[in-house]
Predict the 3D structure of the following.
Amino acid sequence: MNMRVRFPGGKRVDVDFDGHTVQTDQPVDNGGENTAAAPYDLFLASIATCAGIYVVGFCNNRGVDPGLVQIDQRVTFDPESKLASKIDLDLTISPDFPEKYVPALIRVVEQCKVKKSLALPPTFSVNTLPAPVQA
């Protein structure tokens, strides 16, 4: 997968991939205009939405309304690093949700690909490339 980053102005940074554009900005108190979520907030949201898509798939495969499950993500930050030090995913399950599926639902949320990527992080490299010569 390749992504192309663009700088549309101010503190906005966008990324294009697979026909999609994800826009980011910084909050006003960090010099941005708050026109979009900040990149770190999108990272945290990716954990919650990943858990959510696993819930949707689990429920759809069993003919259960995914609306019977609510996910609330709580993030605790380290005061020194300002990075997330703990992430809680709280599942609120309606009484109408079949009780027999609750343990399996918890296991499936724990399989979230974003969560797994944090547990087994990729390696990173930063490279410089020459700009293409224009004719």
In short: The first helix runs from residue 39 to 62. The mean pLDDT is 96. The chain has two domains: 1-36, 38-119.
